């Protein structure tokens, strides 16, 4: 069974506001004909306001296409699935002590599998190392 949804890349559009020259942006906003908004009905006023704001934003922070890649993740092993099922059953029956022990066991097995997956990827070569670094740069261990 493959997980095509997990492996698909999503393309989204973003604006980068970090490099906007604030003074120039303010001057361009001040140069817009805001006085035409006073005599318009509410809906047309909102449309005109958005159009003027987007016009200035398109100059200073244009939309950029960004590909959002999903992180590669190992599939859980049969052992991990079995322990998770036992943990969930214990939780639903109200067995707190058994739930706590199974939760610890789940975490231990998941970390072990994750590290094994990363070690396997690292053995492939140096190009794979940088992919791992990029995939995990915001991840906290």
Provide key terms for this protein.
mainly alpha; 141 residues; 2 strands; 2 domains; 9% strand
Walkthrough of the structure:
With 141 residues, the protein is mostly helical. It has 2 domains: 11-68, no CATH class; 78-135, no CATH class. It is 60% helix and 9% strand. The protein has helices spanning 4-7, 22-30, 42-60, 78-93, 96-122, 126-135; strands at residues 10-15, 63-68. Helix 2 packs antiparallel against helix 3 (42-60). The model has no long low-confidence stretch (mean pLDDT 84).
Q: Count the helices. How many?
A: 6
Secondary structure class reads mainly alpha
Q: What gap, in angstroms, lies between the N and C termini?
A: 29 Å
Low-confidence stretches: none
Spatial order of the strands in the main sheet? Answer: 1-2
**Whole-number count of domains:** 2
Helical content stands at 55-70%
Question: What's the short story on this structure?
Answer:
This protein is mostly helical.
Q: What does the secondary structure layout of this molecule look like, with pairings?
A:
Layout: H1 4-7, E1 10-15, H2 22-30, H3 42-60, E2 63-68, H4 78-93, H5 96-122, H6 126-135
Antiparallel strand pairs: 1-2
Helix pairs in contact: 2-3, 4-5
């Amino acid at each position: 069974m493959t997980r095509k949804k997990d492996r698909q890349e999503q393309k989204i559009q973003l604006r980068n506001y970090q490099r906007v020259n604030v003074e120039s942006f303010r001057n361009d906003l001040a140069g817009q004909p805001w006085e035409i908004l006073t005599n318009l009905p509410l809906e047309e006023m909102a449309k005109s306001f958005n159009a003027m704001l987007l016009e200035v934003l398109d100059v200073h922070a244009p939309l950029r296409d960004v590909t959002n890649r999903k992180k590669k993740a190992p599939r859980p092993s049969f052992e991990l699935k079995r322990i998770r099922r036992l943990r969930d059953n214990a939780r639903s029956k109200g067995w707190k002590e058994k739930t706590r022990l199974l939760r610890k066991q789940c975490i231990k097995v998941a970390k072990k599998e994750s590290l094994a997956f990363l070690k396997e990827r690292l053995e492939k070569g140096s190009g794979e190392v940088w992919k791992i670094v990029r995939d995990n740069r915001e991840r906290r261990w």
